[in-house]
Amino acid sequence: MTGINLPAPSSGPRSGTPRPDTSVVPQRRGRASDLNIRSYLDLSTAHLRAETRADLDAYEDVVAYRTEYGWLVYASEDPEGEWPSELVPIVRLAREHGCEYVLFDADATVADRLPTFDAQ
To answer: pTM of the prediction?
Structure first.
């Protein structure tokens, strides 16, 4: 693991217990209630049609942000209006599993339960 420096084993408060160097280990501050943690479904861009992959942010009712290797899409609780047909079941699947977003990534796993499309 990078970023954490542990000193050579030495006796801590209890005999034989190594003591980590806490000066380089991030410390928790505040309460968990002050954090806004969200979940996302990580899927391959193969689950999007080539036309959708090209211009996902052009759909008026879809909140999508292009990334270097795909898209980050807000999983609307009620996907209505102008949505690509293959995206609606994906967004519903994400919501069923408690996710608020879908991350489409070129290197992500292909889910067997969802259709895939050629990358033309």
So the answer is: 0.70
